[in-house]
Specification:
CATH topology: Purple Acid Phosphatase, chain A, domain 2
Number of helices: 6
Largest sheet: 6 strands, mixed
Strand content: 15-25%
Number of strands: 13
Radius of gyration: 17 Å
Shape: globular
Order of helices and strands: EHEHEHEEHEHHEEEEEEE
Helix content: 10-25%
CATH class: Alpha Beta
Number of domains: 1
Structural class: alpha/beta
CATH architecture: 4-Layer Sandwich
Distance between the termini: 22 Å
Amino acid sequence: MLIAHLSDPHLRTDALAAEPAASLHRALGRVLALDPRPDCVVITGDLTEHGNVGAYMQLREVIGAFPLPLHLTTGNHDDPAALLEVFGGSSFLGGGMSTHYAVAHQGFTVVVLDSWVADSPAGHVGDEQLSWLDDVLAQRPDVPAFVCLHHPPVAVGIPMLDGMRLDDGAALGAVLARHGNVARVLTGHVHRAISVPFAGTAVAVAPSTYRQTSLTLRADRQTGYLAEPTGFLLHVATESGFATHTVAVSEAGAVIGAF
């Protein structure tokens, strides 16, 4: 069992559109070059930079011919209504008309939450989604579940980003702690590869397919973006549980698959 975990492509339609789109396409090509290929791909939010329909149409052009199951998650730069306008009813949103959904794969479940909040960089899932999540996790208690959302529910040590994490992370943790089948909580938002223990499982933060955030560990220092290597995470089932690997893309010198 392998799950490829990408994040934060930030597609856009202005004069700077080429690089993020090409970077996402390159990352997905790197996924296809893995042997064996992953069972599915998850992109944990900030699919676009400005949340407009044109950017989601561009995203559909990039991923439309991708041959593996691919699941999309909203981020603070997204617009759920525009995302649904372009992808609603498609397999990219679990075949439904909601930005929170679950997909039952053979041997594992992907559960996607929507942590988008209007006019805020921070995240919130709310009681309704948490109740739904509780029910979904109980439906296949013996099958590993990957809970996917954009905002990390815990601090990661970068003060600026910690100030805009999931604001009801403790409530999410209380739900997850009731279920022993949560293999990972998959998030993005930080633009760095990070792992943090949480609620009896682990939060895995994926790097961006576009650009990375500086490792700024002091609140009195500037946090910004860097042209560091892009990549994604690969969650691999082993005899000991799940191992999470960071797969380099832009500086890898590795085979890139075509689609």
